[in-house]
Amino acid sequence: MMEILEFPPHDAMKKSDRIEAFVENLITAPEMTPGSALDRRYRAYFQCFNEQLYYEAHDVLEHLWLQDRAKGSADTLFFKGLIQVAGAFVHLKKQFLRPSHPTDGKRLRPASRLFRLAIGNLASYGPRHLCLDVEVLTRFCEDQARAIAGANYAVNPWSPGAAPVLKLDC
Predict the structure, then answer these.
(1) Mean pLDDT, the chain, as a whole number?
(2) Which letter, b or e, does each residue of 79-91 get, where b requires 16 or more Cβ atoms within 10 Å of its Cβ?
(3) What are the residues facing 128 on neighbouring strands?
(4) In this predicted model, which residue has the larger pLDDT, 25 or 104?
(5) Is 50 exceeded by the pLDDT of residue 2?
(6) How many CA atoms lie within 13 Å of 39's alpha carbon, on the beta-carbon side?
(7) Model confidence over 52-64: pLDDT tens digits?
(8) Closest to 82 (Cα-Cα) out of 68, 103, 102
(9) What single string gives the DSSP state of each residue in 31-63?
(10) Residues 7, 19: contact at Cβ < 8 Å?
């Protein structure tokens, strides 16, 4: 199990520096070592995601995506899609934790929309890219979006005990 670390205080440093410090302090899970040649922020995304730290996963990969996008890299949309997957789970987790909250209770539609956007950004990278089975992930996102819409945006398919795990296979 990963030790949960917090970003340093907002007033202490810039966001990019806070994220770098956060990534530097992550305890790498054993299942991440096969992809050790991959960017540490990419690996940190999966570690955070698998610990249900979806907001942190989003932030860590967004840091890589912003640099990647500035370079005009071919992986820009791939990273954007993964960020959207994490964002969808931010919505699902918040809705699960506070279903009657005026804002958090209405997060199923945005989650479904993010799953669909993620599919659009990830699909062209399949079947596999950067040690990730993209086909499996896009099918999973489609299943999640379909389950949410099929329940008329009234049933959250996420729960802590049944949270998905994304694995790198290098």
Answers:
(1) 87
(2) bbbbbbbbbbbbb
(3) 133
(4) 104
(5) no
(6) 15
(7) 999 999 999 998 9
(8) 68
(9) GGGGGTTS-HHHHHHHHHHHTT-HHHHHHHHHH
(10) yes
What's the token pair of residue 168?
A: 């790198």
CB contact at 8 A, 5 and 22? yes
H or E segment to which residue 93 belongs: helix 76-97
- How is residue 21 written in tokens? 């410090």
CB-CB contact of 19 with 59 (8 Å): yes
Helix (H) or strand (E) holding 132: strand 132-133
Residue 11: how many other CB atoms lie within 10 Å: 5
Are 92 and 100 contacting, i.e. CB atoms less than 8 angstroms apart? no
Q: Would you call 129 helix, strand, or coil by DSSP?
A: strand
19 pLDDT higher than 70: no
Give me the pLDDT at residue 102, please: 95
Predicted confidence at residue 25, as pLDDT, reads 66
Angle formed by the axes of helices 40-50 and 15-25, nearest 10°:
70
